Amino acid sequence: MTRRTEWPGDSADSSRAEKELSPQDPAERARAICLRLLTGTPRTRKQLADALHKREIPPEVADDVLSRFEDVGLINDTAFAQAWVESRHHSRGLARRALARELRTKGVAPALVDEAVGQLDSEREEETARALVARKLRATRGLDRDRRIRRLAGMLARKGYGEGLALKVVRQALEEEGEQDLDDLPEPW
User: Fold this and answer.
1) Residue 10 in 3-state DSSP?
2) φ, ψ of residue 55 in degrees (nearest 5)
3) I want to staple 52 with a disulfide (CB 3.0 to 4.6 A). Which of 57, 90, 155, 188 is the partner?
4) pLDDT over 50 at 146, yes or no
5) What is the pLDDT of residue 66?
6) Which own/partner pairs from 31-38 qualify as long-range (CB within 8 Å, at least 24 positions apart)?
7) Domain segments of the chain as ranges
8) What angle (nearest 5°) sits at the alpha carbon of residue 95, between those of residues 89 and 97?
9) Distance between CA atoms of 83 and 129, rounded to whole angstroms?
10) pLDDT tier at 89 (50, 70, 90 boundaries)?
């Protein structure tokens, strides 16, 4: 028998507790669901709306509860997006493009995504790319030049860095290390 891992708030007991609160009062259930979800981590309005929809809370009730949570500051997509960008860029080294994609999947409005991602300037993004390449450079020693370039540029591409920036940073890192024959490497534009 395989045992299912239960996360806080994910167990059958919490679902039962939600229903026992007041099964006839969907607003109370919606508030309880939102508060439980917001306890672990900040969430966007869309994430909470999806959770309420999944638990069959009527849309008008869900909208009222979510609006109230926004009014009192428990839901703030702008703050969420800014904190997300700062955290994910710092911890994972993600570029603006990857961060924007993640925020869109979380349901953050396009204007808020642009604003949050705009807090990263191109200089800071390039510094982060250089740091990522520097950390991985040692692990590629011993490989032929083309394989090193592919691995390092590929790592940056997966983190959302554009091809031009990736090649520029990789080229500079390899030159600083003393790598020869970089003349045939495409020039970043």
Assistant:
1) coil
2) -95, 15
3) 57
4) yes
5) 96
6) 31/65, 33/57, 34/65, 34/66, 34/69, 34/74, 36/9, 37/9, 38/69, 38/74, 38/75
7) 14-71, 77-117, 122-177
8) 130
9) 20
10) very high
